[in-house]
């Protein structure tokens, strides 16, 4: 089977995007639009919970936002002045409807729902203990432990949420809804993003600023690491319930995950990528006739590289936008053709030329290998590859889907070995210091790095309790449901 | 020809059917077939949970068994040597996937699932208290309180189940699965049915014996009121954890709910219906030319009536077997035609004749009125109606969907008024004593009736705690999900 | 796979039903309802063409009428004061959308559509010749030759239709629509039925009178063999374009195909079946305790038999109304159970008794064999079978789906052999003379039989030109389409 | 990144793409892949007809290739060593299944199927005459007249096809299949493209060379205007049955329709677009800070412009790749937000800057207006727009979906008026001579233009017989089918 997802299965994958809004008519419709703009953060399922002053309304579905939340009848049911939403990607077998967020629970004080971007690193241990004490879990998500911890806590919804979060480790940006309140929280290290916006008096929370742009809302600021904001449609109350830590924002959001039109921590993602590309050119340029981006994510870095290196930028690889759900290779005969469903060489700028391919990362290397082969077939004289991230060598435990380390090309080979595997004349990654320089720092401060760069460095900024306790990150669930 | 009408909305409706099996290969497939035979007890959703020695496998779906469990791929996934299943009908708005049974829960001792036929009368109060103490509910079913009570209890699965059931009131027949055990229980009054069967060493539980017949299994006996049986594939352990009470089996199972080919409490349902018909003839016969059953459920009583009254039995109403999902009457012009989608008069036996229509019950009276009108249009000289149950005047709180009392024709009118509403020349219901006589008793012993006949008598055999506490039987759920 | 169609695959099958109406608002809706009442004549596809004074509107779909024509949006599109419709059953592989009728064609005089019940016996030869002369066929149906012959003819629509029909042989009842005319025709032998009805000034054509009843229309008369009626919403013009022949109506319509509530040639189908049952009792009764119909089609004959033989009629076989689309037998283990998806024995009237099963026909014998086996398992002391038709030994070429002769049990064995195959203690069919007597004739007049009984007698009332020319009745089409 | 926008309704739209192959195993699978690469030429329906030496196999479906032809079961049925395929876009109401190509017909010599890219300008007249003479049409497509003309002709398939094409006017590239032959033809002016390819001995025809690339086939040459090639799997026979004319290839293929990676008439489409962009810069550059392509189709022209003007190229507009099937704006409140579902401004390169937007064409102008507004909201200091085609003022009758002229912005306004409507500070289109210069000619030779540029010039290279005869290009069909 030829994988034809619009997302490339040879990329790391962001697992979630979140959105919340309060203080407007049609909050559910706003949430649907916001999630649509965050679709790149999770394509497998989406959900919205709205509150109309009386009752909560929910719609959750497998599939993309536009396919499930575009209908008038769906939006009409999600009525109310407050809503939260969630998009989700997840590994096979676990994306079942009961795991689709927002998770809803009925507390003694009333209904409550939560959407979570990130991943907790001690959820398995907490879950085991809660079950021992009589809790009944409805999903297999790490997020549900927060809900159960809240149920065991006392006080109002804010007090319970703070109490619950004091028990968890890992990365989380949350949006919650509890009757007339929408609440946003970011973990003390601020690993995953969360921004605050405003639209005609309504207050908004979103993973990225592009979800504000789609509805014409104004970007106000990033929620700070360890901050909790409580929105009631009139006032924004900012709480600081957690000890102050140095921020460790995920640097890969700049490299690949975020949309290029988003602003994160005050920086344009597009420009960050261009600066990384320029830095890459300064570090490892070789003589060449043309700079070619690997579409679509390599484009900004390739532009930055081209402008710095003063070598023309050309679209040497053309992507087919029509991909369909699946496309089977039915016979051996077809398989041996090496069918080019997604990409084609733009031969006129490749044949007889020395080309530099610019891509954002190498994960398994399978796509890179195919693309290089396609360039060779199209007559490239030399093929060099430049990568706008350091080698990806370690798993992420903070909400990014990473293959097992032994599947990571950078884990299996050094750079020379990788170059040979992929089939290029030369291969270079940006250095760790170069990456930090492109982001405006003097280099990486090994004692106190400014970002979470664990997938490159292996230095995890939190404890990995479940892993240390021997729990598999994704254990066999007791119940397989379809 | 003569079964529970799958589409008549002017009937009371059984809400559930259950099935369990242990000690055979392909337990999931057996369960699917058993549920297919119990389809008349619940057409809106179905679910099966199987256990393969390692893991539980579940499939739950809206719709009928044959449409959702017929595929080889579905059955292949439900592998294992033990399985339980459930079919469900429910009132509009609440039949959402999260309410479809069996309910599954992960306990400290492992996984557990339960399917429930009946209804608890104090579930609302227990639920409120459990939520106050930190429980998170995943459905809006009354059944889930049993699972949470078990989670709070101690001991092994049997001890916990007994402890949980000591808190609940109302009607329940349950099948449960917990790894290598299948458990069946009937409430102390035995309101809803549950039978034990055997097939080549496998032990089986089912709501009715027709679910044994479909797979060629042997009917062993009815589970007794208040009895719990624990099946491990080798042994059947019978427990008596509840105080001994006099049985109060639902008499309407004989009148309409059960399939005519089922044996209940040792009696043939078909013959019971014929005897009720014969008793009806003895009580209220009038001179007539022909006895006509209202298809399909009125057939056995009409046969019994005809044989007793020595008046010919003829199929004077022909039913169209093809009914489709919906058939809109698109315009006023069409509506005024009085379209006969489901039934047609077999004019040759009606025109110019004195006819006696025999039906099992009158609920709202709307269908009866239409049928009488059709008989008049076909030229009937006289139309008499005889009903093989006493007037249905009260709601059922034990697992039967009854309209609000003010919708029940017998609640609005006396027999003469009902006759006028329906448009018949005469109308008679079997008497309460006549019903008991037909069932082999001398009459109804007011001090200790042998059956639950609350829908006729208003005498409920259990407390109705939630109702007394002012909880609406079906409260607005906090969350509306689609 | 267990066949779970509502139609039994061990029955002959009527292939089509037709309906036409002119002179009312919402003609399309009337047609949908009429087809719903004719659903037993063809369950695999349905189509309607309506005319609104300006334009024709068509909807054709695979599946049942209620599933495809129930929606308001569909009916709204089929607007107009005149409409014709068609339901169709067809052999596997050929029921593709382009074959679903009514067939539409654009002539020089305007649009025209036709629905056909029956089968032409010289269509293949005509088609070959027409293609040779440049015609392009759009379907593989025999009916399309009529349309092409009309296109080659001259004059108005009526003249062309008559000219075309003069070339064809075989059986046909047709409804046609051509702008402001609806036309009905029956072949000179009147093999297939067609009746005329009236509803508030609108004129109606239908295969059976039950399609009049559903909309409250009045049965006027049967269209006569060889008659053409032209309806324009005001007048009914009757033409007699074909030579007068003795009628040869299909006797199997009375035995099984028609709905029991239909009136055909002035006779009640239900009563005809009862009379055949009574005649059967007179011919071949044996001492027995109970008469049991094979549901559902055997019921009227069994009632007639029971009343004549004075032996009680009981529903000894209960049918499950819920059948689903398909139900796979996934494993050998399940297969050996002999699963009873459709029928169950009502043991209380079988065990220890001498039973007489009454059925309408035996085709392959597979269902009969299973039912007898089920009776034996339920403890029957003796099992006798009585059939209300003579042995089915020959193929039908006039619009009934018959298996190849070597699949017909009566072609393979004599009655004794059939009894042994099925496993009964005795087996008897009604005699050919007995059948004619039950239908009011002195017996079968071998020189001039009143009915088409070719499936029993092998005497075909028309030429079988294609068969004689060696054309397979269903040849490999040039194009396989899905 | 840079392809025909699958969802922009403010573009002209190519109506068809075609593909044919002979001399390989799995010809149907090759055709599916080829059509996938041609998906931009028609997204609403697709069809394939294959021939296996005995029988033709066909699959036609509404929707995209990947959604309908990806399944193994579909491809398995399309077995054979020869196949043709077609993708189709069509105006609303007419894309019904019976119009989906390839059209199949059964001739006296056997089966035949045809797929057509282009449009005939005298089909209506021919059709009327053919119907008058007794032909029955199965579709409402212009293409079907070719099939009927062939049926009336004599000789083998090639002779009949030539005879038929001698009667038609307009534009056509055809692929045909007739048992062991695949035939390709291009009309005498060569308005629509058709190329010849080769893969391991198999011969291939395709609308564009990108359909060769996807399966690794080699581009051999363009079929010449007026040429017919007959492929039998071994030999390629080239015929010249039509009078030699000067080529008039559609220039809009270079501007927008074709995929940038295709080679047409020996020229790279991507490079042609870049050269047009460069010419545009030479003709009408204004001082600016940044060149921004309107994604995705404006990218190559913008790159060419940027390189010529030496002003940086930046992705100032980011497109959302996830678009879903529909996204309703459910309320007035939502509508007034001006939701940006498809595009977002990349503010960092717009705010405070003088920008030049480069797009390929302006049709209605609605999308351009929205994009300019978005640029203003993002703070652009000046907004200039440059268009890489002359103003689109006339309808196309050769297979391109054009709005009615009064909907074309260039038909309603002069350039100044258009600039005002769109809201730009300046607007310029490439001149007609500039366009020809970019394509390698000295300018437009008014006496003998090298291209069909009728949509700009109004000079149609063929007669428009149906139009002159007063037939609407898309007349109300006699039959509306769904």
How would you portray this structure in words?
- The structure is a homotetramer of 482-residue chains.
- Residues 1-7 and 91-95 of chain A have low confidence and may be disordered.
- By secondary structure, chain A is an alpha+beta fold.
- Chain A folds into two domains: 13-248, Aminohydrolase, N-terminal nucleophile (Ntn) domain (Glutamine Phosphoribosylpyrophosphate, subunit 1, domain 1); 273-320 and 341-444, Rossmann fold (3-Layer(aba) Sandwich).
- In chain A, the strands form seven sheets. In chain A, strands 4-3-5-2-11-10-12 form a seven-stranded antiparallel sheet. Chain A has a six-stranded antiparallel sheet with strand order 6-7-8-9-13-14. The first copy, chain A, has a four-stranded parallel sheet with strand order 18-21-22-24, with helices on both faces.
- Chain A contains 17 helices and 26 strands.
- Chains in contact: A-B, A-D, B-C, C-D.
- Chains A and D meet through helix 1, helix 2, helix 3 and helix 10 of A and helix 1, helix 2, helix 3 and helix 10 of D.
- Strand 26 of chain A pairs parallel with strand 4 (56-62) of chain B, so a sheet runs across the interface.
């Amino acid at each position: 089977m030829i994988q034809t997802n619009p997302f490339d299965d040879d990329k790391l994958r962001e697992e979630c995007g979140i959105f919340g809004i309060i203080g407007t008519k049609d909050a559910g419709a706003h949430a649907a639009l916001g999630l649509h703009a965050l679709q790149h953060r999770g394509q497998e399922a989406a959900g919205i919970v709205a509150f109309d002053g009386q009752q909560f309304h929910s719609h959750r579905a497998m599939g993309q936002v536009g396919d499930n939340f575009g209908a008038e009848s769906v939006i009409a049911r999600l009525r109310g002045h407050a809503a939260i939403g969630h998009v989700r990607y997840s590994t096979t077998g676990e994306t079942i409807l009961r795991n689709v967020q927002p998770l809803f629970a009925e507390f003694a004080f009333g209904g409550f729902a939560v959407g979570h971007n990130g991943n907790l690193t001690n959820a398995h241990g907490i879950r085991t203990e809660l079950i021992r004490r009589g809790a009944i879990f409805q999903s297999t998500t790490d997020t549900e432990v927060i809900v159960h911890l809240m149920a065991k806590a006392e006080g109002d919804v804010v007090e319970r949420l703070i109490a619950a979060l004091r028990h968890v480790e890992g990365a989380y940006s949350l949006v919650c809804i509890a009757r007339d309140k929408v609440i946003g929280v970011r973990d003390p290290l601020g690993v995953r993003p969360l921004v605050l916006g405003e639209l005609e008096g309504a207050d908004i929370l979103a993973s990225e600023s592009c979800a504000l742009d789609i509805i014409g809302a104004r970007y106000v600021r990033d929620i700070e690491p360890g901050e909790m904001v409580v929105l009631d449609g009139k006032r924004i109350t900012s709480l600081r319930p957690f000890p102050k830590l140095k921020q460790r924002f995920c640097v890969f959001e700049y490299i690949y995950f975020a949309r290029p039109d988003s602003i994160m921590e005050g920086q344009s993602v597009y420009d960050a990528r261009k600066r990384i590309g320029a830095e890459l050119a300064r570090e490892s340029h070789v003589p060449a006739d043309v700079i070619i981006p690997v579409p679509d994510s390599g484009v900004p870095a390739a532009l930055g590289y081209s402008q710095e290196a003063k070598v023309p930028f050309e679209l040497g690889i053309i992507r087919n936008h029509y991909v369909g759900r699946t496309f089977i290779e039915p016979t051996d005969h077809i398989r041996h053709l090496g069918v080019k469903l997604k990409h084609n060489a733009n031969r006129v700028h490749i044949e007889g030329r020395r080309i530099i391919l610019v891509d954002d990362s190498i994960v398994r290397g399978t796509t890179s290998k195919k693309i290089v082969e396609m360039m060779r077939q199209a007559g490239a004289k030399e093929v060099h590859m430049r990568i706008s991230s350091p080698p990806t060598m370690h798993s992420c435990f903070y909400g990014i889907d990473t293959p097992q380390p032994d599947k990571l090309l950078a884990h299996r080979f050094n750079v020379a070995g990788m170059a040979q595997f992929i089939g290029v004349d030369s291969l270079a990654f940006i250095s760790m210091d170069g990456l930090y320089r492109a982001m405006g720092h003097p280099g990486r401060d090994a004692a106190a790095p400014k970002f979470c760069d664990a997938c490159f460095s292996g230095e995890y900024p939190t404890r990995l309790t479940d892993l240390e306790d021997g729990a598999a990150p994704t254990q066999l669930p007791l119940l397989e449901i379809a």
